[in-house]
Amino acid sequence: MPSWNEINLEVNNDPDPNACDKVRLKYILELETYVNRTVIAYYSGYWQKQLPTGVHPECAITDLDMNGLMAVVHKVDRSRGLDLILHTPGGGIEATRAIVEYLYSMFGKDLRVIVPHIALSAGTMIACSARTIVLGKHSSLGPTDPQIRGFAALGIIAEIDRAIVEIKAEPLKQLLWQQVFSNYPPNFILDCERSIKGSKSMVTEWLSNNMFAEFDDAADRAVETVSKLMDYEGTSEHGHHFLAPKCREIGLKIDNLENDQKLQELVLSVHHAFVVTLDRTNAIKIIQNAKGAAWIIGAG
Description:
By secondary structure, the protein is α/β, with parallel strands linked by helices. The chain is 48% helix and 16% strand. The chain contains 11 helices and 13 strands. The chain has helices at 4-12, 19-35, 65-73, 93-107, 122-127, 153-169, 173-181, 188-211, 218-229, 244-250, 261-280, and strands at 38-44, 50-51, 54-55, 82-87, 111-115, 118-119, 132-135, 140-141, 147-148, 151-152, 254-256, 283-289, 294-298. The strands form 4 sheets. A 7-stranded mixed sheet has the order 11-7-5-4-1-12-13, sandwiched between helices. A two-stranded antiparallel ribbon has the order 2-3. A two-stranded parallel ribbon has the order 6-8. Strand 12 (283-289) and strand 13 form a beta hairpin. The longest helix has 24 residues, at 188-211. It is globular, with a radius of gyration of 21 Å.
């Protein structure tokens, strides 16, 4: 398996100005040939493309991604199922819903999500739509608690519950909590509640109808799993990392990447090839298939 340094050197030694594109295509095609399934990679450059104000907004999952997915799904074999290689910090809930429903409409429920390193937040939600998730020992999923205007929706609701308890015990604390809640914009709490309800319902439905569909208690399993994925008190932050053993404990179907040495080598080669591209070019996000079609958003 070529390391990141070796793939970077491979690009360096190729005089073709499109060397990054050639190397990515080489490894994703090798992976598709091995698994005998359609392979699409979705990569966000959120590590590489930082702005003074934080991560570039186009690094997130957005409605614009649908254009990329349509471009790379066009003319691929949809009868073999889909292996989606996913690397993302997350993004919009409704954009995520649209992506999953589109992939279902194209490939049915025969979806496997492979996470070479990280798929957090809405990325974890996409992973939950699959039949199985493939994780390496170093790979991570994360909580699916929604963020509203930069704030954790579950945190806001937990704060309200705490305020109620404290005010009942000490009525004078109402003055303190009034100051806190006066900073919330109109409808903010309602928006938090709506987002939590929508996220929970969406992921529960996907788990029930796909990953847990074989079980008689699929709905109950899904509810329990989602409650663990949205456990605000049980995580340190929105970016909390769930490694493979924890993901199994949560209830998700996880396959070890290391169980198939050839698959591990091919997946990590694809991963390194995409990360090298994001490091060396102005690409912010890359969505690509193994037929050579790629949709790339560049930094302006």
